[in-house]
DNA sequence: ATATGAACATTATGTTCATAC
DNA sequence: GTATGAACATAATGTTCATAT
């Protein structure tokens, strides 16, 4: 209950990008946030720290990615968490599901565009 | 605060359809719901009674539409509320704003489609 | 039973605080 | 100050209840 049938959640949207970052395997949380902030700047979408961390944590918990603590470049004793894909099969399955919702969401928005504008 | 910069809200989406129904001027709440349920059935979007009424109430409060109580067809003493546009200038201004958000939202979703699939 | 609407509950998401370096 | 994360607050939306016909 309480679950919308409308458009895919921001969380799911962000998780796609988290997986993409994890494939590179060398970025930590706040770097990812900064990257996405820049990347979406033209569309005025400003993801928050909270959503980025929650997206990463969910993917960890679901076993799609794993975390590694490494020393931050240029410093000593400053550990940051970087992420890597841990189960490519799960990733593929997850993405296939999200794609369905994404296609559906785009169709919903395009329908409104056609109906009203 | 607390406001997302992500995709346009369901409420805004539905309000577009409420305005369209109000232009016809002869449907009441649950009829609109039924119509939309059918209309979005292929995309598995199932708006709720609550969202439909809240969308109508917001538009009323904002002065874009007005309400008329009429006797339900075929019955006596059963009053239903139908809606009509009350201020076309406001409607145009509202739709222009929503279009910006709608275009932006479509762009966000298409970007994810391009980036991940 | 159908129609309207409010009250309530739960999610989804944003903001602030705590801890460590 | 930067990084991680939890705790907290609010907003968006779904579910249930009340009232009337």
Which CATH architecture of chain A would you pick?
Answer: Orthogonal Bundle
Strand order of the largest sheet of chain A: 1-2
Q: What would you call the structural class of chain A? A: mainly alpha
CATH topology of chain A: Arc Repressor Mutant, subunit A
Low-confidence blocks of residues of chain A:
none
General form of chain A: globular
CATH superfamily of chain A: Winged helix-like DNA-binding domain superfamily/Winged helix DNA-binding domain
Features:
117 residues; two-stranded antiparallel ribbon; mainly alpha; Arc Repressor Mutant, subunit A; DNA-binding; 4 helices; 12% strand; homodimer; 58% helix
Describe the structure.
- The structure is a homodimer of 117-residue chains.
- The first copy, chain A, is mostly helical and 117 residues long.
- Chain A is built from four helices and two strands; from the N terminus they run αααββα.
- Chain A has helices spanning 10-24, 29-39, 49-61, 88-116; strands at 65-71, 79-85.
- The first copy, chain A, has a two-stranded antiparallel ribbon.
- In chain A, a hairpin with a 7-residue loop joins strand 1 and strand 2.
- In chain A, helix 1 crosses helix 3 (49-61) and helix 2 (29-39) packs across helix 3 (49-61).
- Chain A is globular and about 60 Å long.
- The termini of chain A are far apart.
- Chain A binds chain B through residues 4-7, 10, 13, 16-17, 19-20, 40, 43-46, 95, 99, 102-113, 115-117, and chain B through 4-7, 10, 13, 16-17, 19-20, 40, 43-46, 95, 99, 102-113, 115-117.
- The structure holds a DNA duplex (21 and 21 nucleotides).
């Amino acid at each position: 209950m309480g679950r919308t049938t409308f458009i895919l959640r921001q969380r799911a949207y962000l998780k796609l990008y988290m997986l993409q970052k994890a494939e590179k395997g060398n970025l930590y949380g706040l770097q990812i946030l900064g990257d996405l902030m820049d990347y979406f700047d033209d569309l005025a979408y400003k993801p928050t720290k909270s959503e980025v961390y929650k997206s990463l944590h969910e993917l960890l918990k679901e076993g799609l990615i794993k975390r590694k603590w490494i020393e931050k470049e240029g410093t000593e004793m400053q550990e940051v968490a970087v992420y890597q894909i841990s189960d490519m099969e799960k990733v593929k399955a997850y993405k296939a599901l999200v794609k369905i919702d994404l296609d559906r969401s785009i169709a919903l928005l395009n329908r409104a565009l056609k109906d009203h504008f």
